[in-house]
Design a protein that fits this description.
Chains A, B, C: It is a multi-pass membrane protein. Chains A, B, C: InterPro entries: Gly_transporter. Chains A, B, C: It holds the Pfam family Gly_transporter. Three copies of one chain form a homotrimer. By secondary structure, chain A is mainly α. Helices cover about 80% and strands about 0% of the residues of chain A. The first copy, chain A, contains eight helices and no strands. The N and C termini of chain A lie far apart (about 50 Å). At the A-C interface, helix 2 and helix 4 of A face helix 2 and helix 6 of C.
């Protein structure tokens, strides 16, 4: 079970890291830029959460495997970015799984550190979307999660909410986490395929 | 007294949050963008201070009322932004009260955590102006507090300095805080009405 | 010895701060912008490291001398920026010494706080280059360290690696630190004078 979770976690990090490295390629950055954006995108959301709840040093700094995955993502993207770019829709789909995993894991970690239910949900969203915000800000792009693209934060909020409510009701953690992540992933994938957007203020 | 302070604090957060949501509207972001920029603008300065002094999780994460206010600000701005935009000068005036409150409260909290007088003043300025810096950076605008608009950080520095000096001289905290906040608010309002600017390097 | 280290540290901060203030001048910011960018550039890398390892409040907040140096840099740049700009190549050369110092000191501080070797090297690079990243992001410039300018992060990585490996092998700290910093400085200076760049993905 623990090793399944580790593999899922590393897989999520890999996909997030690739999206960071791809943006670095588009900005014509060098290998350092690819490495930095890959790492920041993949681990940045968790770092923000860990800093806010006082879980320092963050787990992903203490375990070299978490640092190795963005390096692999950056090098792969460095050599094969035309292939990766052509499959960007595949990256988006895989990214949905990272989203589902991170919003649930992030919210539950916050709960574990004694944070209340509402901030725990917020920190679940931050874990899932925060790395992408850092990636976009550093590359001078208004964060895509803030609109007007397909739904991203709302599925993450749904997953985090289910996880936290299930925890409050003292349901067993594994089935709750699976349901929560499945809802987030499914909602995000439907948003991509059907073109669902969050509402935008009328002008 | 405690409930007066809470109301003032929440009022300051509300005004800051509205300025964040307004910028999100101007950037054509969706409701997620409005919520995120409202929250970041309202609470971001305090979070930076709390992270730097080790007061984690920040109070505004532990108390759901602090998280509710940016939601109200974002939803109000979402539906009524043409009205809010027409009254942007009013938002600026109300923002001056948030500035006065946060620079004093921020500096005193830093002092309470054992930080010396000079860094406490700096952290007071960060509490008042840091949220606006985060708002601007995320929305790809050079932070307005860095110039060349009307004085903002200097009134905050004055308020924080009076609060910290009063604390060092062991004056009673309430009158000192009132004087410090009044100086900051008045100076900021005069800067707005008279068009006072900080000096800019000659070219 | 301790006072030599302090002088070196403050000298490194001064040069980093000048590069921040110069960018603020170019962005036509006011004196507040110069002060903020000088402080962020000079101390921001260390703050990120300290926040991630839990060394809060950061040393540079606890000691007013660290806060005074960016003020001096900002005021000097405010009045004499045409002179400083004409000598920007000199600033680059002096900056190489700051780079060498900070990557080694940053990595060793991380080791001291119980971080493993790989993250300690990463945090050494962050200490040396993080302030510049913050400076660039706030001033809306894609961070220069991410390319495609002359090598910056790679010399920092070399210095941090030598320092950490030397520490792991239990070599005496002073000669290891001197060798590590010398390698980083020399490599960076050679990169500037010979125009060495990190590889960029093929388009």
């Amino acid at each position: 079970m623990a090793s399944l979770l580790l593999v899922l976690d590393l897989a999520g990090i890999l996909v997030f890291a690739i999206s960071g490295a791809l943006l670095a390629v588009r900005r014509k950055l060098d290998i350092i830029g690819l490495l930095a954006l890959a790492t920041l995108t993949a681990l940045g959301g968790g770092w923000i959460r860990d800093i806010l709840i006082g879980a320092v040093p963050p787990a992903s700094l203490a375990d070299w495997r978490y640092l190795l995955v963005p390096v692999i993502a950056a090098l792969t993207t460095f050599w094969f970015h035309p292939v990766v770019t052509r499959r960007e829709r595949t990256v988006d789909v895989l990214d949905a799984f990272g989203l589902g995993l991170f919003c649930v894991a992030g919210a539950l970690k916050a709960v574990e550190y004694g944070v209340g239910p509402v901030p725990a949900i917020l920190l679940g969203i931050v874990t899932a979307a925060g790395g992408g915000v850092l990636r976009d800000v550093v590359a001078l792009r208004v964060p895509t999660v803030f609109g007007p693209g397909e739904l991203y934060a709302i599925p993450a909020a749904a997953g985090a909410t289910i996880a936290v409510v299930g925890h409050e009701l003292e349901f067993p953690v594994t089935p709750v986490a699976v349901v929560a992540a499945t809802v987030a992933v499914t909602w995000r994938l439907l948003a991509i395929t059907r073109g669902w957007h969050a509402p935008v203020p009328r002008t």
